[in-house]
Amino acid sequence: MKETRLKKILDKLSETSGFITSTELANHFNLSKKTISRDIRELNTLLNKNGAKINAKPSLGNKFEVTDSKLFEEFIRTEWYKHAFEHDDRNNPQYRREYILSELLINKVYVKAEDFMDQLVISRSTFNMDLTRAKDFLTKFQLEIKSRPHYGLYVEGEETNFRKAILKLLNHSLADQQTEGVMEDIKGVLYSEIKKHNYVTTLYSLNDLVSHVYVSVLRINKGLELRSDHTSFDKSIANSSEFHVAVAIAQRLERHLSISMNMNEKLNLTMLLISRITPLNSHDAYIIPNNINDLLERIVAAIDEEFNISLQNDLDFRISLGLHLKNMGNRLKYNLILKNPILEQVKSDILPFQIATFISSLIGCEFTTEITEDEIGYIALHINSALIKKDKLKKKKDILIVCATGKSTAILLKNKFENEFLAYINTLQTLDALELERIDLTKFDLIATTVKLNITTNVPIIEISTFLSGNDVESIRNRLKSKEEINYLKTFFSKDLFFVHPEGQTATEILDYLSGEIANKFAVSKQHYFEELMKREALSSTAFDNLIAIPHPLNKVVDDSFVAVALLREPIKWGQKMVSIVLLMNVDPTKGNKSDFLYQTITDLLSDRLKISFVQKAQSYDDFVSKLV
Fold first, then answer.
1. Which residues contact 251 (CB under 8 A, 6 or more apart)?
2. Staple 377 to which of 103, 110, 346, 430, CB 3.0 to 4.6 Å?
3. How many separate domains does the chain show?
4. Residues 535 and 557 in one domain
5. Which part of the chain is the PTS EIIB type-2 domain (predicted)?
């Protein structure tokens, strides 16, 4: 097992009876003082509970001391191993795959199969399965695992593709004990030089830059620099202002990390900067090129035609998306990867992500390349902002909270209401029960009260607990939805497209089964419908983290709106996730103006684990609908 950094620091401190400064520790472990200080605080918190401490004095440094020998000895004997070593899970196929990839991509040139089997303590057959998974991963980057007699396995491919593959793995198995410190140093250099040269960037873009540069440093340290035959750089970028920033960054990295960056490395860094930093107070930075303006026209027209949502006159949307597409064009031009750290959260907003996926084909045609799921997620953020601005989803309500236990409770309830129902609220007022007589209740759409009210009014009243329980939240949400909306929602679901435990053990089999049922109901080609579903899955998996998949055809096949439901007997693998509820959505926005309410209902379901468990157990159509709405 690998030793953790905490163990290495404690071992170093234990070697001497005197003080060691943080600077000495930082130099010894090749880490920043900030990282060492944080580790010492973490270590001290652990030791203080277990009979020891690190005595830190600003003028002297850090000294290890035992305060209770019996307690400390017991801790070392029974608990310390949990903190002293990295604990891998060799029974986990994902871990084994990443271990194989990291050894081949980073740590060694050749590795024998027998060595992998010994290190992972697995059989030949298990290793062969893990190797197949590793090969599948590398195929996405045009890399290939090959075997050389007497030497072992190795990876063959272009250097630029090696770096892309390593970048993909960076947040998993490749982070060793010194990674964090090196990345912090890189981040400091990048931020300092970007700011010095009067550029700005976002935190996400800065962190993404750090990852890219870190991978470059790893490869340079292995003697694997970018060469002219590795790259197809547009040499004109050497005349760009970003190139001067890249040169300044390279010079500092060379001094700080004892490396040498050739011209190709500097050009590569320039390309990374071009799509991630913006000149401060530069007029050119906010000019949208004609080709992007033309693309925006096609995008808003397509959204209007396909989803019946007009964004033609939303200038903020056109400017924000236009500037994003301008920078995105630079990334695509230079084949650069931009990770989206909030992709899963973005995907849970179904309608924006569905629209973004739909228009990604238009964008891909403009830039003659396929748009990644990470990039689609960024586009969805702009669409989501536009939809929120249009306020399409709900007619907002005026709500009165009646409380009899004082102002503090009223404030607490008001805060909880705002957290749970903000999207439904127009105005929210709190009132003591004794003051009801002096207020006009007819101006409210709903009264929520913690005490029984002896009043006569046409306004709906709902009694709630003082601390707003889960049942209260569900009851209020149902009251806030109009009867018209609920009845309309039910029209999307039908008994003949509701299936409990349908046949199929894979995502493909389930989609094939549902395609057949839909084809029978609407008299369309099963094969055509199935192909459109698979085209959409090829863009990005429609599975979510909470056992739900929401597939839909990429292009319209059926001129109708419906949701086909499949509740599976056991969870099945759907992309990289497990799924037990399938909601196949086929929505034609031109057939009604409340399909957005359907999207909101499904989005609410995705974030409600309790409701998911209820829906999952439904045994009939009526049971399912009642639990959903």
1. none
2. 346
3. 6
4. yes
5. 397-488
Rounded to whole angstroms, how far apart are CA atoms 116 and 134? 13
Q: What is each CA distance from 72 to 67, 78, 421, 562, in whole angstroms? A: 8, 10, 51, 65
Q: What is the DSSP string of 467-517?
A: T--HHHHHHHHHHHS-HHHHHHHHTT--GGGEEES-S-SSHHHHHHHHHHH
> Domain check: are 411 and 359 in the same one?
no
Q: Rounded to an integer, what distance in angstroms lies between the CA atom of residue 601 and that of residue 545?
A: 17
Q: What confidence tens digit (pLDDT) does each residue in 94-122 have?
A: 888 988 998 899 876 789 999 888 888 88
What CATH code is carried by the domain that includes residue 112? 1.10.10.10
Alpha-carbon span 555 to 347, nearest angstrom: 19
Q: Are 566 and 510 in contact (CB under 8 A)?
A: yes
Tell me which residue has tokens 């009801």.
436
**Whether residues 492 and 602 fall in one domain:** yes
Task: Give me the pLDDT at residue 172, please.
Answer: 52
- Report, as an integer, the average pLDDT of 486-492: 76
Which structure tokens are listed for 252?
Answer: 């500092």
Looking at residues 428-451, what average pLDDT do you find? 86
Q: Give the residue, 235 or 267, on which the prediction is more confident.
A: 267
**Residues 263 and 291 reside in one and the same domain:** no
- The secondary structure of residue 230, as a DSSP letter, is G
Q: For residues 209 and 183, what is the distance between their CA atoms, to the nearest angstrom?
A: 10
Judge whether 64 and 14 are in contact, CB under 8 Å. yes
How large is the average pLDDT for residues 36-61? 89
- Residue identified by tokens 């236990």 is 405
435 and 305 in a common domain? no
Asked whether residue 101 is domain-assigned, the answer is yes
Q: CA-CA distance, 75 to 81, in Å (whole number)?
A: 9
Residue with tokens 């740590």: 107
- Whether residue 174 lies inside any domain: the answer is no
d(Cα 462, Cα 346) in Å, to the nearest integer? 33
Q: What is the mean pLDDT of the chain?
A: 85
Q: Would you say residue 433 lies in a domain?
A: yes
pLDDT (0 to 100) of residue 33? 81
Q: With 50 as the cut, is the pLDDT of residue 392 above it?
A: no
Structural domain ending residue among the three candidates 449, 479, 509:
479
Q: Are strands 425-432 and 397-403 parallel, antiparallel or unpaired?
A: parallel
By the 8 A CB rule, do 109 and 102 touch?
no
Q: Is 126 helix (H, G, I), strand (E, B) or coil?
A: helix
Query: Is the Cβ–Cβ distance between 473 and 465 less than 8 Å?
Result: no
Residues 500 and 615 in one domain: yes
| Domain region containing 65 | 5-84
Mean pLDDT of 390-417: 74
pLDDT one-digit tens code per residue, 565-613: 999 999 999 988 899 999 999 987 665 545 766 877 787 788 777 788 8
From 136, 169, 202, the end of a domain falls on 169
In one-letter notation, the amino acid at residue 562 is F
- Residues 251 and 367 both lie in one domain: no
Task: Provide the terminal-to-terminal Cα distance of the chain, rounded to the nearest Å.
Answer: 51
Identify whether residues 248 and 266 lie together within a single domain.
yes
Which amino acid is it at 105? Answer: L
Share of the chain above pLDDT 70, in %: 91
Query: For 312-337, what is the mean pLDDT?
Result: 85
* CATH code (residue 225): 1.10.1790
SS3 370: coil
